[in-house]
């Protein structure tokens, strides 16, 4: 699998200011993306004035959260205690997972890192634009923080966006505690958090048995569907890895199509997976997705709300989806009878 260059992701491209060295370099190498990116840059910023959901107070909550995360990211790496603590694989693996749960993670998994889990080059920030990603740890600790169902069901209104930013904060805190703890006992560790990833979190999460990547490109867990935010801590501390099993989630996505049908930007593909760079997967149109964010003023979230896994399904059906299309049909019928295509919570929030 070819490594992804962070300079190519839509959030990085949206940050390149005309006249900057990053802008000149990127579009010299990728002239075919310049026109669409310039158009997106001219639109209001998500949560900004001029978007459909803008509110001078409520939108500021999301902006404040991202500013906080930006200030926090410099603590993702730090000094390692020279006095290494000896432990057993079983003890430290249990401790790491327990600590993640204690600080708010709903799910935790561990995997050996692969080269393709890392970006090839950095691209989000001018200070390290274009730097090759060479820091490769042996293990990845990945965790999922659940987001509130009622808030996500407000998508694409501002309540959904505020819940998502809260999820990023919660994941960042869990990652900070784990990375600080690991360095405290004498091993290197890095927290990968919003705006400061060196890794592609859904790939690490899938390899760590937290779920499977669905039609919309997001990780779908059995427990909460895609209604989670992910965090990753990479480390050289020896740990016990989790075993991956076929959960049948991709099979479910092939039959479902809810997210593709409800996507306001028509960014999520219908139909089967296609071979892309040697791998069978679905590929969303990031520009179409991001253009909705720019118009609406939140990160949309309709695909999170429309996924049946976000709302809980019969446990016996979920356990037996792989190779069982009848169970998938039963689960889809039950979801549609209860929610239609998707639930929508349009009631005023008590304090928003």
Can you walk through the features of this model?
Pfam families: Fer4_7 (PF12838). Keywords: Iron, Iron-sulfur, Metal-binding. Residues 253-309 form the 4Fe-4S ferredoxin-type domain. InterPro entries: 4Fe4S_Fe-S-bd, 4Fe4S_Fe_S_CS. The chain has two domains: 6-29 and 58-235, 3-Layer(aba) Sandwich (NADH Oxidase), CATH 3.40.109; 249-339, Alpha-Beta Plaits. With 352 residues, the chain is α+β, with helices and mostly antiparallel strands. Helix 9 (249-256) crosses helix 14 (325-339). The strands form three sheets. The protein has a four-stranded antiparallel sheet with strand order 1-2-6-3, sandwiched between helices. A two-stranded antiparallel ribbon has the order 4-5. Strands 7-8 form a two-stranded antiparallel ribbon. It has 14 helices and eight strands. The chain has helices at residues 10-14, 21-29, 34-42, 58-72, 89-102, 149-152, 158-184, 201-207, 249-256, 258-262, 286-296, 302-306, 315-319, 325-339, and strands at residues 107-112, 139-146, 189-192, 212-213, 219-220, 228-235, 274-276, 279-281.
Task: Provide the gyration radius in Å.
Answer: 20 Å
Strands of the largest sheet, in order across it?
1-2-6-3
Helical content (DSSP H or I, runs of 4+): 25-40%
Count of separate DSSP helical elements: 14
Helical/strand content category? alpha+beta
Topology, number of strands:
8
What is the mean predicted local confidence, pLDDT? 95
What is the percentage of strand-forming residues? 5-15%
CATH class of the largest domain: Alpha Beta
Q: Work out the count of structural domains.
A: 2
Largest sheet: 4 strands, antiparallel
Topology-level CATH name of the largest domain: NADH Oxidase
Order of helices and strands: HHHHHEEHHEHEEEHHEEHHHH
Termini separation comes to 44 Å
- Unreliable segments (pLDDT under 50, ≥5 consecutive)? none
Inertia-based shape: globular
CATH architecture field of the largest domain = 3-Layer(aba) Sandwich
């Amino acid at each position: 699998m070819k490594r992804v260059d962070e300079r190519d992701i839509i959030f990085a491209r949206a940050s390149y200011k005309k006249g900057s060295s990053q802008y000149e370099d990127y579009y010299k190498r990728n002239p075919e993306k310049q026109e669409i990116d310039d158009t997106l840059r001219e639109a209001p910023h998500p949560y900004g004035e001029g978007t459909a959901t803008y509110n001078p107070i409520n939108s500021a909550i999301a902006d404040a959260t991202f500013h906080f995360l930006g200030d926090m990211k410099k603590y993702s790496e730090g000094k390692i205690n020279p006095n290494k603590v000896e432990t057993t694989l079983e003890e430290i693996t249990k401790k790491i997972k327990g600590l993640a749960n204690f600080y708010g993670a709903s799910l935790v998994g561990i995997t050996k890192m692969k080269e393709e889990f890392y970006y090839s080059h950095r691209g989000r920030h001018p200070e390290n634009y274009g730097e090759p990603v060479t820091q490769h740890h042996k293990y990845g600790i990945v965790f999922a923080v659940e987001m509130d169902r009622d808030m996500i069901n407000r998508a694409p209104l501002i309540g959904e966006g505020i819940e998502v930013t809260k999820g990023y904060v919660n994941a960042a805190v869990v990652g900070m505690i784990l990375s600080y703890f690991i360095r405290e006992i004498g091993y290197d560790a890095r927290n990968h958090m919003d705006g400061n990833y060196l890794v592609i979190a859904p790939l690490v999460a899938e390899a760590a048995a937290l779920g499977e990547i669905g039609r919309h490109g997001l990780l779908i867990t059995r427990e909460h569907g895609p209604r989670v935010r992910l965090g990753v801590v990479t480390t050289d501390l020896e740990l016990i890895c989790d075993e991956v099993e076929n959960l049948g989630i991709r099979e479910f996505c092939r039959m479902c199509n809810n997210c593709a049908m409800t996507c306001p930007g028509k960014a999520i593909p219908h139909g089967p997976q296609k071979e892309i760079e040697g791998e069978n997967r679905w590929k969303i149109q990031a520009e179409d997705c991001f253009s909705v964010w720019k118009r609406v003023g939140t990160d949309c979230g309709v695909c999170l709300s429309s996924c049946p896994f976000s709302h809980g399904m019969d446990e016996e059906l979920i356990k037996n989806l792989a190779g069982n299309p009848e169970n998938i049909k039963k689960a889809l019928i039950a979801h549609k009878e209860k929610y239609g295509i998707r639930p929508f919570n349009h009631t005023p929030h008590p304090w928003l």
